[in-house]
Amino acid sequence: MRALSLILLALTTLVGCASAPPKSSDNICDVFDEKRGWYKDARRAERRWGSDIPTLMAMMYQESTFRPKAKPPRTKILWVIPGPRKSSAFGYAQVKDETWKEYQRMSGNHWASRSYFADAIDFVGWYNAQSKKRVGIDKNDARNLYLAYHEGHGGYKRRTFDQKAWLVGVAGKVEQRARRYREQLKSCERRFKGPWWWPLR
Protein backbone atom coordinates (compact mmCIF):
# COMPACT_ATOMS: atom_id res chain seq x y z
CA MET A 1 0.00 0.00 0.00
CA ARG A 2 2.83 2.35 0.91
CA ALA A 3 4.63 1.51 -2.33
CA LEU A 4 1.48 2.30 -4.34
CA SER A 5 1.14 5.65 -2.54
CA LEU A 6 4.73 6.52 -3.38
CA ILE A 7 4.19 5.63 -7.04
CA LEU A 8 1.06 7.78 -7.22
CA LEU A 9 2.88 10.66 -5.56
CA ALA A 10 5.75 10.37 -8.04
CA LEU A 11 3.35 10.32 -10.99
CA THR A 12 1.50 13.35 -9.67
CA THR A 13 4.79 15.21 -9.30
CA LEU A 14 5.85 14.34 -12.84
CA VAL A 15 2.53 15.49 -14.29
CA GLY A 16 2.76 18.72 -12.32
CA CYS A 17 6.28 19.39 -13.56
CA ALA A 18 5.30 18.58 -17.15
CA SER A 19 2.43 21.08 -17.13
CA ALA A 20 4.19 23.84 -15.19
CA PRO A 21 5.20 26.90 -17.23
CA PRO A 22 8.91 27.32 -18.03
CA LYS A 23 11.01 28.85 -15.26
CA SER A 24 12.58 31.38 -17.64
CA SER A 25 10.16 32.57 -20.31
CA ASP A 26 12.14 35.63 -21.39
CA ASN A 27 14.71 33.55 -23.25
CA ILE A 28 13.42 31.16 -25.88
CA CYS A 29 16.58 29.06 -25.63
CA ASP A 30 15.90 28.48 -21.93
CA VAL A 31 12.29 27.60 -22.73
CA PHE A 32 13.25 24.93 -25.25
CA ASP A 33 16.04 23.62 -23.01
CA GLU A 34 13.53 23.03 -20.23
CA LYS A 35 10.61 21.86 -22.40
CA ARG A 36 12.48 19.58 -24.75
CA GLY A 37 9.51 18.59 -26.89
CA TRP A 38 8.26 22.11 -27.48
CA TYR A 39 10.77 23.02 -30.16
CA LYS A 40 9.68 20.11 -32.31
CA ASP A 41 6.00 21.01 -31.84
CA ALA A 42 6.67 24.67 -32.70
CA ARG A 43 8.79 23.71 -35.70
CA ARG A 44 6.01 21.49 -37.00
CA ALA A 45 3.48 24.35 -36.70
CA GLU A 46 5.91 26.71 -38.43
CA ARG A 47 6.27 24.35 -41.37
CA ARG A 48 2.57 23.61 -41.60
CA TRP A 49 1.21 27.17 -41.41
CA GLY A 50 4.05 29.57 -42.26
CA SER A 51 4.50 31.74 -39.14
CA ASP A 52 7.97 31.42 -37.67
CA ILE A 53 8.64 29.97 -34.23
CA PRO A 54 9.40 33.33 -32.52
CA THR A 55 6.09 34.81 -33.69
CA LEU A 56 4.12 31.77 -32.53
CA MET A 57 5.84 31.64 -29.16
CA ALA A 58 5.56 35.39 -28.51
CA MET A 59 1.82 35.29 -29.14
CA MET A 60 1.35 32.29 -26.89
CA TYR A 61 3.42 33.88 -24.14
CA GLN A 62 1.17 36.94 -24.22
CA GLU A 63 -1.97 34.84 -24.02
CA SER A 64 -1.07 32.53 -21.14
CA THR A 65 2.60 32.91 -20.14
CA PHE A 66 2.73 29.24 -21.19
CA ARG A 67 0.19 28.04 -18.62
CA PRO A 68 -1.76 25.04 -19.99
CA LYS A 69 -5.02 25.76 -18.16
CA ALA A 70 -5.05 29.55 -18.18
CA LYS A 71 -8.48 31.21 -18.01
CA PRO A 72 -9.68 34.82 -17.98
CA PRO A 73 -10.14 36.25 -14.48
CA ARG A 74 -13.60 36.09 -12.96
CA THR A 75 -15.77 39.18 -12.83
CA LYS A 76 -16.76 40.54 -9.43
CA ILE A 77 -20.30 40.88 -8.11
CA LEU A 78 -20.58 43.79 -5.67
CA TRP A 79 -16.77 44.13 -5.98
CA VAL A 80 -16.26 41.05 -3.77
CA ILE A 81 -18.20 37.94 -4.84
CA PRO A 82 -16.57 35.95 -7.69
CA GLY A 83 -18.81 36.05 -10.76
CA PRO A 84 -18.68 34.38 -14.18
CA ARG A 85 -15.62 34.60 -16.41
CA LYS A 86 -15.65 37.12 -19.24
CA SER A 87 -15.36 34.44 -21.93
CA SER A 88 -14.82 30.73 -22.56
CA ALA A 89 -11.15 31.34 -23.49
CA PHE A 90 -8.95 28.55 -22.16
CA GLY A 91 -5.54 26.96 -22.40
CA TYR A 92 -2.11 27.89 -23.71
CA ALA A 93 -3.55 30.00 -26.54
CA GLN A 94 -6.64 31.32 -24.69
CA VAL A 95 -9.05 30.09 -27.36
CA LYS A 96 -12.80 30.47 -27.09
CA ASP A 97 -15.02 27.40 -27.47
CA GLU A 98 -16.50 28.35 -30.85
CA THR A 99 -13.12 29.29 -32.37
CA TRP A 100 -11.57 26.04 -31.16
CA LYS A 101 -14.37 24.04 -32.77
CA GLU A 102 -13.79 25.90 -36.04
CA TYR A 103 -10.08 25.07 -35.85
CA GLN A 104 -10.78 21.39 -35.16
CA ARG A 105 -13.11 21.22 -38.14
CA MET A 106 -10.98 23.16 -40.62
CA SER A 107 -7.57 21.76 -39.63
CA GLY A 108 -8.69 18.15 -39.31
CA ASN A 109 -7.27 18.01 -35.79
CA HIS A 110 -10.55 16.76 -34.33
CA TRP A 111 -9.15 15.47 -31.04
CA ALA A 112 -7.08 18.55 -30.26
CA SER A 113 -6.91 19.87 -26.70
CA ARG A 114 -6.37 23.50 -25.69
CA SER A 115 -4.25 22.40 -22.72
CA TYR A 116 -1.86 20.37 -24.91
CA PHE A 117 1.07 22.45 -26.19
CA ALA A 118 1.39 20.81 -29.60
CA ASP A 119 -2.28 21.46 -30.40
CA ALA A 120 -2.24 25.00 -29.02
CA ILE A 121 0.84 26.07 -31.00
CA ASP A 122 -0.68 24.51 -34.10
CA PHE A 123 -3.82 26.55 -33.47
CA VAL A 124 -1.86 29.81 -33.32
CA GLY A 125 -0.21 28.92 -36.62
CA TRP A 126 -3.58 28.07 -38.15
CA TYR A 127 -5.14 31.33 -36.95
CA ASN A 128 -2.24 33.34 -38.36
CA ALA A 129 -2.71 31.59 -41.69
CA GLN A 130 -6.38 32.63 -41.59
CA SER A 131 -5.29 36.21 -40.82
CA LYS A 132 -3.09 36.15 -43.92
CA LYS A 133 -5.90 34.73 -46.04
CA ARG A 134 -8.74 36.89 -44.73
CA VAL A 135 -7.14 40.26 -43.99
CA GLY A 136 -3.74 40.07 -45.70
CA ILE A 137 -1.44 40.21 -42.67
CA ASP A 138 2.08 38.92 -43.21
CA LYS A 139 2.57 35.66 -41.31
CA ASN A 140 5.48 37.07 -39.30
CA ASP A 141 4.00 40.51 -38.57
CA ALA A 142 3.60 39.78 -34.86
CA ARG A 143 2.04 43.14 -34.02
CA ASN A 144 -0.83 42.99 -36.51
CA LEU A 145 -1.27 39.24 -36.15
CA TYR A 146 -1.84 39.75 -32.44
CA LEU A 147 -4.34 42.56 -33.05
CA ALA A 148 -6.30 40.25 -35.38
CA TYR A 149 -5.97 37.40 -32.88
CA HIS A 150 -7.43 39.53 -30.11
CA GLU A 151 -10.13 41.39 -32.06
CA GLY A 152 -11.05 38.74 -34.59
CA HIS A 153 -10.82 39.27 -38.32
CA GLY A 154 -14.00 41.34 -38.47
CA GLY A 155 -12.81 43.58 -35.67
CA TYR A 156 -9.41 43.95 -37.30
CA LYS A 157 -11.03 45.05 -40.57
CA ARG A 158 -13.07 47.62 -38.65
CA ARG A 159 -9.95 48.70 -36.75
CA THR A 160 -11.65 48.32 -33.39
CA PHE A 161 -8.20 48.39 -31.81
CA ASP A 162 -7.92 52.11 -32.64
CA GLN A 163 -10.14 52.72 -29.62
CA LYS A 164 -8.00 50.51 -27.38
CA ALA A 165 -4.68 52.15 -26.68
CA TRP A 166 -3.86 49.47 -24.11
CA LEU A 167 -4.27 46.72 -26.73
CA VAL A 168 -2.06 48.53 -29.24
CA GLY A 169 0.55 48.72 -26.48
CA VAL A 170 0.27 45.01 -25.79
CA ALA A 171 0.61 44.23 -29.52
CA GLY A 172 3.80 46.27 -29.52
CA LYS A 173 5.13 44.14 -26.67
CA VAL A 174 4.32 40.98 -28.62
CA GLU A 175 6.26 42.36 -31.58
CA GLN A 176 9.25 43.19 -29.35
CA ARG A 177 9.20 39.74 -27.79
CA ALA A 178 9.05 38.07 -31.20
CA ARG A 179 12.11 40.06 -32.28
CA ARG A 180 13.96 39.14 -29.10
CA TYR A 181 13.04 35.48 -29.42
CA ARG A 182 14.19 35.56 -33.06
CA GLU A 183 17.63 36.87 -32.12
CA GLN A 184 17.93 34.41 -29.23
CA LEU A 185 16.92 31.44 -31.36
CA LYS A 186 19.70 32.18 -33.84
CA SER A 187 22.22 31.35 -31.11
CA CYS A 188 20.73 28.04 -30.02
CA GLU A 189 18.42 26.56 -32.64
CA ARG A 190 21.11 24.29 -34.06
CA ARG A 191 21.16 22.16 -30.93
CA PHE A 192 17.39 21.63 -31.00
CA LYS A 193 17.26 20.56 -34.64
CA GLY A 194 19.00 17.28 -34.00
CA PRO A 195 21.03 15.23 -36.54
CA TRP A 196 20.68 15.79 -40.27
CA TRP A 197 18.28 12.86 -40.68
CA TRP A 198 15.80 14.16 -38.08
CA PRO A 199 12.48 14.71 -39.89
CA LEU A 200 11.92 18.22 -38.52
CA ARG A 201 15.39 19.77 -38.97
Molecular structure report:
The protein has 201 residues and is mainly alpha-helical. The chain has a single domain (23-193), classed as Lysozyme (Orthogonal Bundle), CATH 1.10.530.10. 62% of the residues lie in helices and 4% in strands. The protein is built from eight helices and two strands, in the order ααααββαααα. The protein has helices at 2-19, 28-34, 38-49, 53-64, 97-107, 117-135, 142-158, 165-193, and strands at residues 74-77, 81-85. The chain has a two-stranded antiparallel ribbon with strand order 1-2. Helix 4 crosses helix 6. The longest helix is centred in the C-terminal third of the chain and has 29 residues, at 165-193. The chain is globular. The N and C termini lie far apart (46 Å). The model is unreliable at 1-17 and 74-85 (pLDDT under 50).
List the helices and strands and how they pair.
Blueprint lengths: L1 H18 L8 H7 L3 H12 L3 H12 L9 E4 L3 E5 L11 H11 L9 H19 L6 H17 L6 H29 L8
Antiparallel strand pairs: 1-2
Keywords: Signal
Protein name: Transglycosylase SLT domain-containing protein
Pfam family, one: SLT_4
